[in-house]
Amino acid sequence: MMDPQKGLTGLRDLIAQTRAAGRLVEVDAPADPVLEIAHIVHRHDGRPVLFSDVTGYPGWQVVAGVASAREYFAMALGVPVEEMIHRLAAALENPVPPPVVGDAPCQEVVEPDVDLTRLPILRHFPFDGGPYVTAGIVVLNDPDYGRNVSFHRLLRLDGRRFAARVVERRGTDTALRKSAGDLPVAICIGNSLPVLLAASMSPPMGVDELAIANALAPTPVVPCKTVPLHVPADCELVLEGRLTHATAPEGPFVDLTETVDFVRPGPVVEIDCITHRRNPIYQALLPGGLEHKLLMGMPKEPSIFAAVNQVCRCVNVAITPGGASWLHAVVQIEKRGPDDGRAAIEAAFRGHGSLKHVVVVDTDVNPYDPAEVEWAIATRFQADRDLVVLTDQPGSSLDPSGTHRPGKKARTAKMGLDATIPWGADRAAFEKVRYAE
Ligand SMILES: Cc1cc2nc3c(=O)[nH]c(=O)nc-3n(C[C@H](O)[C@H](O)[C@H](O)COP(=O)(O)O)c2cc1C
User: Which of these, 215, 202, 196, lies nearest to 173 by C-alpha position?
Assistant: First the structure.
């Protein structure tokens, strides 16, 4: 465990770990935040990429891809990959309030004036609505539930304002609807993986995501300079300001499903103060890339795991890349009763509201291997016995095939496949022969 006073390195620590492991791609040639950097990151998707010469932004480095493979999360949490779901589930169960420190690296420099055009915010695609912050987490206080932390993509409008994408009825939207005036916010960029993981979790209202992060790894916080909020002390950059009730067109932008999300009105964020570390590293995140997928999907695995374990014995959960790491999951159970498969399907949909399709498999089927999962469907599943279809369910705004009405929650059909060996059947007839090692 790192000493919060001495070792406040977070993202920088992980960069050093991936360099030592020979995974870090280092780009010393000049690279432009307008399209070029996104293209280079895409070419290396699955590896962290550090740019040390950012065209037009002297003194800034840019990093992306630090969350683009399960192994980097395992590095950051100090556990093997297959252990991570248990660490995440434990942190979700037992959050630990973060210690408050007096001064912090993220405030080594307090900018005299606010000019967002002096930050290396990437343009990812020529058709985007503009430069977008994609790895920014928004810290705010809900008057009833306390601190909430979540990701919001931010379209830079000018030197002081963004338009934010705020999905309806989640923490940020709920807090803004309650607030008569502007809502104080702090946007943190350049965070540790535990902080990024926690920010993409949807714990019950009132559970502080920074306490979940602190349960995963030491995450001290520091008071902001101009708003009544605390932020991770070791993040790279903090934009302090207000989420307003004014709106501006947000989009077009590529989202998780690698399809272009449509333009809609987004709340305007006004920035009043910028602080950052010396020699700051701006964190970018490729929209629709592996990092986006893992950060969206992985934090949902422990909540599905917890929900399924309430109805039967769940061993593991994989949110699969083929389902854009959001819409599809494979749930592995130790079957102990005839209805466990169906119960696991229904529980999985409770554990992750945006889940669209789920396959339940036995312990001898690797949930991370799509070929093994398909084999289980081919040899253990009958559509007229083991299929669950739910119509007109709340769905994901990210699924273009769903029913989308402005300002309303999307609607979808959901499907579950119980691909476990039928209860009471002769198991030997269903098990795959294995050649002796
Ligand atoms: C990389 C990434 C980008 C995201 N972008 C957005 C976004 O632009 N708008 C949004 O409302 N949610 C976005 N999310 C999802 C929320 O951050 C996530 O659902 C969060 O858990 C909501 O938390 P809450 O329920 O506590 O408010 C994103 C998540 C990730 C991992």
Answer: 202
Ligand 1: does its nearest atom lie under 6 Å from the Cβ of 285? yes
**What was the pLDDT predicted at 408?**
79
In the reported structure, the alpha carbon of residue 30 is separated from the centroid of ligand 1 by a whole-number distance in angstroms of: 32
Please give the pLDDT value at position 235.
98
CB 204 within 8 A of CB 350: no
Q: Is the CB of 306 under 6 A from ligand 1?
A: no
pLDDT at 437: 66
Interatomic CA distance for residues 59 and 64, integer angstroms: 17
Is residue 341 in contact with ligand 1, taking CB distance under 6 Å?
A: no
What domains does the chain contain, in order, with CATH numbers?
11-285 (2.30.110.10), 296-429 (3.40.1670.10)
Q: Residue 262: its pLDDT value, please?
A: 85
- The parts of the chain modelled with pLDDT lower than 70 are 1-9, 437
Give the DSSP H/E element, type plus range, for residue 91. helix 84-93
Please give the pLDDT value at position 1. Answer: 40
Give pairs for 334-339: CB < 8 Å, separation 24+. 334/362, 334/363, 335/362, 335/420, 335/421, 335/423, 336/312, 337/312, 337/423, 338/423, 338/424
In b/e form, how buried is each residue of 234-246, taking b as 16+ CB within 10 angstroms? bbbbbbbbbbbee
User: Which residue, among 100, 102, 103, 125, has the nearest Cα to 41 in the 3D structure?
Assistant: 125
Q: Which of 20, 25, 116, 8 is nearest to 64 (CA)?
A: 25
Joined tokens for residue 293: 């997928």
Q: Specify the pLDDT at position 234.
A: 97
